[in-house]
Amino acid sequence: MQYPSRILEKAVDEISQLPGIGKRTALRLALQMLKKPTSQTENLAKSLVSLVNDIKYCKKCHAICDSELCDVCSNPMRNHDLICVVEDIRDVMAIENTSQYKGVYHVLGGKISPMDGIGPQQLKIDSLVKRAADAKEIILALSSTMEGDTTMFYLYKVLKDTEITLTTIARGIGIGDELEYTDEVTLVQSIQRRVPYAASLSN
Amino acid sequence: MQYPSRILEKAVDEISQLPGIGKRTALRLALQMLKKPTSQTENLAKSLVSLVNDIKYCKKCHAICDSELCDVCSNPMRNHDLICVVEDIRDVMAIENTSQYKGVYHVLGGKISPMDGIGPQQLKIDSLVKRAADAKEIILALSSTMEGDTTMFYLYKVLKDTEITLTTIARGIGIGDELEYTDEVTLVQSIQRRVPYAASLSN
To answer: InterPro entries, from UniProt (chains A, B) (predicted)?
Structure first.
């Protein structure tokens, strides 16, 4: 595609480097920016620069935050003996949104995925092992995929000889879901992992 | 949604003001930027600021360009008697990409659309009428929608008393399209607007 302007072409090139945004969408976005007040795009540019330069990661749990420690880790009301291991900050946000979990987190920063060149060294596993010494329970809350399962198994191997209780989030049919629309694997597992009915009443 | 960081929240707010990008996509983009080298996002920010501040519009045809006159308007080899009226720069790019059109353009900057508050005054119609005095033919190449048809009819009313030849691009079934998959309106119109077979051979 020939662009009528070098400046436009440069902007389209830069925008289309964002994941999931192709040249066509990038051009549409660039042209929309030209229709909006200049200040709006300048503010966007400023906040992007601030994002990549000023953002901090919690020294303890590696979650994104604005200070040395995140709000969860610095909160004395949270249960610091209970650590929930998640893949990234979006999982923390999703769990925090429920306002039900009272423990703390540990953000791995990804899952073990040799295809993407991500091994245990690329993840925050060493610091988890160090933190684990002071904790009573670690909840492995990674996604139920090949990579998630591999990562959880790796963490299990690393932590199984400690005193710590290792748990994983419950897998099964979602609350409100209908059986007939559930995928086969989940359905089979939900029967294999059945729990006493009386136990389910206590939740 | 509670964000763990003000800086992240600000960035997500700014990104999600782009058309077609919601909060969730904005968050995904922001987190991806944090995984990429800082320089990449800084370059993106720079090119956006440059886009909205440094871009120029051709004085003659209002197309986006880097100088006073666009490459087409400043090219003496183009036929300046033939003006193709289009909605926006993307249409110019699409036609230029074919390398077949030898005339010049006029970018209206939109279509008459009272619902969006766009009337003839918001479009570059006055300057088209001025340019028309020196031209022999004007091709109306707007999209075949309610707004496009309205805009073309308005231009027809404005220009019909001049010496100029007013044409519109051919409507019909696309080259290579199959009749059975063509929408009804196009099919009906393609029969009503049928042309002598011998005339179609000359193209």
So the answer is: DNA_Rcmb_RecR, Rcmb_RecR, Rcmb_RecR_Znf, TOPRIM_dom, TOPRIM_RecR
Smallest CA–CA distance, residue A175 to chain B, in Å, is: 21
Residues on chain A touching B13 (C-beta within 8 angstroms): 47
* B2 closest CB neighbour out of A46, A56, A96: A96
Contacting residues of B for A70, CB less than 8 Å apart: 4
Q: What is the pLDDT of residue B203?
A: 56
Q: What is the ipTM of this complex?
A: 0.82
Q: Could you tell me the mean pLDDT of each successive run of 10 residues in chain B, 203 residues long?
A: 89 92 93 92 94 93 92 94 93 91 94 91 93 91 91 92 89 85 85 80 66
Which site among A47, A93, A107 would you substitute to test the B interface, given the most B Cβ atoms closer than 10 Å to its Cβ? A47
- For chain B, give the mean pLDDT: 90
CB-nearest partner of A8 from B55, B88, B96: B55
Cross-strand pairs, B83: B104, B138
Query: Which residue type occupies A73?
Result: C
* Rounded Cα gap, residues A95 and A86, in angstroms: 10
Query: Domains (ranges, CATH) in chain B?
Result: 6-54 (1.10.8.420), 77-169 (3.40.1360.10)
Question: By the CB < 8 Å criterion, does B146 face chain A?
Answer: no
Q: Please calculate the CA angle B156-B158-B160 and round it to the nearest 5 degrees.
A: 55
A116 — contact with chain B (CB < 8 Å)? no
Longest dimension (CA), chain B: 70
Rounded (5°) CA angle B137-B170-B71 = 50
Q: From A128, A130, A148, A125, select the one nearest A83 (Cα to Cα).
A: A128
Question: Which of B51, B93, B118 to mutate against chain A (most A CBs within 10 Å)?
Answer: B51
DSSP for chain A, written as a single string: ---S-HHHHHHHHHHTTSTT--HHHHHHHHHHHHHS-HHHHHHHHHHHHHHHHH-EE-TTT--EESSSS-TTTT-TTSEEEEEEEESSHHHHHHHHHHT---EEEEE-SS--BGGGTB-GGGTTTHHHHHHHTT-SEEEE---SSHHHHHHHHHHHHHHTTSS-EEEE---SSPTT--GGGS-HHHHHHHHHT---HHHHHT-
Sign of the CA dihedral running A143, A149, A151, A154: positive
CB pair distance less than 8 Å for B52 and A33? yes
